[in-house]
Amino acid sequence: MKQNDYLMLKNLVKDFHDGRGNTVRAVDDISLSIAKGDFVTLLGPSGCGKTTTLRMVAGFEVQSTGDIILDGRKINTIPAFDRNMPMVFQSYALFPHLTIFENIAYGLKIRKMPKEVIKNDVALAAQMVNLVGLEDRYPGELSGGQQQRVALARALVLKPEIILFDEPLSNLDAKLRIQTRTEIKRVQQLLGITALYVTHDQSEALSISDTIVIMNNGKIVQSGSPEEIYNHPAGPFVSDFIGNANFFDGVVTEIDNRFISVSLLGSEVQVPLPTAGQSFSKGDEVVLAIKPEAVEVRPGKGAFNGKIEVSSFLGATTEYKIEYADGFMTAITPNTQGEIHNYRYGQEIAFSFKKEFFRIYKR
Predict the structure, then answer these.
(1) Which residues have C-beta within 8 Å of that of residue 210, sequence separation ≥ 6?
(2) Are residues 12 and 140 both part of a single domain?
(3) pLDDT digits (tens, 9 = 90+) for 194-238
(4) CB contact at 8 A, 53 and 12
(5) Which of 24, 30, 154, 312 is the right S-S partner for 319, CB 3.0 to 4.6 Å?
(6) Which residue, among 225, 190, 193, 227, has the nearest Cα to 210 in the 3D structure?
(7) pTM of this prediction?
(8) Total domain count, the chain
């Protein structure tokens, strides 16, 4: 068996029935292979099927058709409590009347493990997630980030084959989210545990994943490394979802063996010829996508001109919403030492594009 076939989803489908004869397909024939020890994130908008997929892997939902295969054996009919795939929830799901030690030990007690084993394993789990000294406290006495680490320790103490995460950081503030996701990734790498993680937060997925699986309308639309997903989106949906891209309509005017020339906003730009995927012909109507950080803003006049509608100073960067002849676009400019450009509302500016970052799609 190949290493990347440790957990396999084969033609997985999940239909829900509303009691009035209507069927809603939440997961639509998806297939996915996950390597042992990988951190895989299901990423997509609300209602795309990512949480339903996670719940089927956990055994909380039964698939309509398809197979879930773990290490070469089908686990379709194995109940959730026998799959050894604990889930870390968004709401922590801690017992408020139990101490931190008792919360972490709960699964081991259910399994009737010896007291000495429980004591040692809980101590090790608490140490891994930096909870030493808090074992006698109650959940209500801890911060949100500490409570989420208790939930993580409670999962880790079971020595799981796979650990599942259902938007575990959604209830934390921005700084705690970054700290806790770093902690999750550190422990996952330390133990070599396979992780399947669900989120709708793009920066979260990019920062912790080995593989990102983009879902929309119950289907997988692209999967790959964070770098591949960000730099080579497979279509306009991924381009917009993962990088808040700007989109422009254009027409192909010329094609050579390196570039496609496209009319854009009354001018012409040369876009790198895609190495794979769609083919283009002269006269094709296309959509060009470019990320905000590949739009350059400067004072004065140029080939492309507009005016500042909104200026948002964000510390390391400044984000601009620019009004131009055909609508609005977003640009993000880095603030380097001695070079902070803070254009104001209504100021007329010129903008240009780092053309190598354009992505081209047929309309």
Answers:
(1) 38, 39, 40, 225
(2) yes
(3) 999 999 999 999 999 999 999 999 999 999 999 999 988 989 999
(4) yes
(5) 312
(6) 225
(7) 0.87
(8) 2
